[in-house]
Amino acid sequence: MNLLVLVAVLAGAGALSGWQPLGPGGGGSLGALTAGLTAVFSLDAARRNQGRMRAAWTLIAVYLMMYGVADGLTSAPGAAEGSTALQVANTISLLAFVPGTIGLLLYPVLHTERGMWRSMVLDAMVLGLAVVYVTHALVLRPVFASAISLNEAIMLAAYPLGSGLAASIALLLLLRSAGPSRPDTVLIGVAFAVFAAADNGYALMTVSGGAKDWTLVDLAYTLAPLAIAVAAAFAATSPTPRRQLRRHLSGVVSPLLPDLAALGALVAGTVLAPRDTASTIFGVITIVAIGIRQVAQTRDGWRLRGQLEDRVAERTWELEELTLAYRRLDAMKHEFVTAVSHELRTPLAAIRGSLEMLHDGDAGELPPSARPMLAVASRGSERLSRLVDDIIDLERLESGTFSFAPASHRLADLVADAADSLASLAVRQQVELRCRATQERAWCDADRVVQVLVNLLSNALKFSPPGTAVEVTVAREDDTVLVEVRDRGRGIPATELEAIFDRFHQVDMDDSRQLGGTGLGLPISRRIVERHGGRIWAESDGSGATFRFSLPASTEPSPGESDHPTGRSVSLSSTAG
Question: Which of 402, 431, 454 is the last residue of a domain?
Answer without folding.
Answer: 402
